[in-house]
Every structure is written in C-alpha cells, then in structure tokens.
Amino acid sequence: MGTTEIIAPEGQPVIDMRRDFAAPRALLHRAHTDPALITQWLGPKQYEMVIDEWDLRDGGRYRYIHRDDAGTAYTFHGVFHSTSIDGMVQTFEFEGAPGHVSMDTLWFEEHDGRTTIHVRSVFQSVEDRDAMVAAGMGDGVNQGYDRLEALIPTLLVQA
Amino acid sequence: MGTTEIIAPEGQPVIDMRRDFAAPRALLHRAHTDPALITQWLGPKQYEMVIDEWDLRDGGRYRYIHRDDAGTAYTFHGVFHSTSIDGMVQTFEFEGAPGHVSMDTLWFEEHDGRTTIHVRSVFQSVEDRDAMVAAGMGDGVNQGYDRLEALIPTLLVQA
C-alpha cells in the first residue's frame, strides 16, 4: 500500500495532501468524477456511501451520505467549481456543522505511467482546519485512498 | 468617510477586512443581498454593475459584470453557501482567470446601533492572494464601501 503525505502547516488554514498511484491520470480523474466509481472508494473503510446529488459541472451541486456499521449517517454537500482533468475545485460542508465550508483544489500530475494526486484544502479559519484534523480526517483520507489503490487493477482491466 | 482595515498576513492565503458603518445589521445584510441595492455600491466607483444571475440560496449561483468608462467588462461568478444574517459564505471567481476561486466569509457585528462588517477571504494559494492584491483589490473594496456608506442615509429613511 502507498502512503498519503498530509501536511497541516502551523498557524495556516490549509491542509496539503499528496499520494502516488500506479495509474494514468485519466483513470484517476474518472475515479473522482464517476459516481458509480467514487462510491466504491471515497471515505473510511466499511462505510456505505450513497450519492443523493451529483451534478458534475461548474456551479453544480453534490450531496452524499456516509453510513457506518451502527447506522449513523454523516452527510456532506458542496458545489463543483471546476471539473477538468487539469484541476478540480469543489467546496465541502459537513451538514453536522453548517456554515463551516472548506474549498478543495485537486490536480493530477502524471509521470512515467504513474500519477500523483495533489489536494489542497483551505478553511475559513485555523480552528476549522484543526477541527477537521481532530475529527479523524487523516485516517478517513488514507483509508479511502487505500480502497482506491485496491480498485485500480480492476479499472485498468476495464479501460 | 470611514476606512477599511485590510490585512494580508505574510505567507498565508488569507485576506481579512473590516469596516464600521453607522447602520443596523439588518440594513447592511439587505445591502449585501438585495440585487437592486448591491448594484448601487459594490465595486470601484464609476463602474457600472449589471447582475446576470442572483440565486440567493445555499447552492445558488450569482454572476455579475462590472464595466468601466472605456466599456471594458470584468465578469465574476460564484456560489452562495450560506446567506443568513449571522454569516454569509460565497465563492468568487474572476472569469478572466478561470479555475482560480476564492471563498469569502462575511459576518455583521452590531454594537450600539453601528455595525462592523468582517470579511475573511481564503485563496487556493498565497500567489493567488497576492495576485488579487496586485490587481487593486484594496482600492476596489474601499471605493465600494465608500459608496455603501454614502447610500446608508437614504436606506435608513426608507427603512
């Protein structure tokens, strides 16, 4: 398994993440934009993910629910601002903490048949950033990327 | 005329702004949300503002055009994320630099009949923040707030 580099710079409302995958850029872009694929990997392991809205265009809204083994639901929504293979921008809001919105920029850097995913998240405040870290965001991201890594061989065969 | 405090902290993708107005919070909230009012003050002086879209709800889109004396148009769009009087969150993108999105949080703090407007803008990078400053954002904000200040007596009479 690969590892996710996660950097939360001191005193800044920012998180930078980076992970390398053995897949071309187009495949990773598809895994991030096709709702039938994203439900197979996004979020903590053993969580069921259901997509309620997925309007993939500039200004389009998404909303999804993660449900854990005990049936507890965690719902998130946001708006896509850019969805091209060169860079995706989307906002992110946990419905349990309304009004606290972060903005993620993703880009895919391909090199020798492998691709590095970069994600920069900016928050309204350092406190919001720290709350996200304290809520276990790092583990959730890592488990999701582990699941994506495990999914890639199947997607490469289908491609 | 009042003055706008504008802070761009070194090395952070952040701008904090603050300005005090002789008006109650509800009036300032209305001046920020009613399209018939916002076109009277937002942006640099002598710019004409035309609203193309203004869908004031969580997930709703806005788009407007500023046109200078020479007829040059500058178009901006974004999405409202929260629009309550306690705090507004909206994204902001200049169509001349697509994919560069910032996110603004506004809140109105009332005290003794006056209200301080706070705005925190977060950017995808320090470079994006610095580009916005270099483009004259401070002057534009100040001129807009001067116009808002001049408009307040009329709005107070109508209220």
Description of the molecule:
The structure is a homodimer of 159-residue chains. Chain A is of the alpha+beta class and 159 residues long. Chain A has a single domain (5-158), classed as 2-Layer Sandwich (Alpha-D-Glucose-1,6-Bisphosphate, Chain A, domain 4), CATH 3.30.530. The first copy, chain A, is built from 4 helices and 8 strands, in the order ββααββββββαα. In chain A, strand 7 and strand 8 form a beta hairpin. The first copy, chain A, is globular. The two termini of chain A are 22 Å apart. At the A-B interface, strand 5, strand 6 and strand 7 of A face strand 5, strand 6 and strand 7 of B.
Essential attributes:
homodimer, eight-stranded antiparallel beta sheet, 28% helix
Query: Any idea what the CATH superfamily of chain A is called?
Result: START domain
User: Looking at the chains present, what oligomeric state does this protein adopt?
Assistant: homodimer
Provide the CATH topology of chain A.
Answer: Alpha-D-Glucose-1,6-Bisphosphate, Chain A, domain 4
- β-strand number of chain A: 8
Give the integer mean of the pLDDT values of chain A.
95
* Structural class by SSE content of chain A: alpha+beta
Distance between the termini of chain A: 22 Å
Number of domains of chain A: 1
Taken as a percent bin, the fraction of beta residues of chain A is: 35-45%
Shape of chain A: globular
- Provide the gyration radius of chain A in Å: 15 Å
Q: Give the class-level CATH name of chain A.
A: Alpha Beta
Named CATH architecture of chain A: 2-Layer Sandwich
Order of helices and strands of chain A: EEHHEEEEEEHH
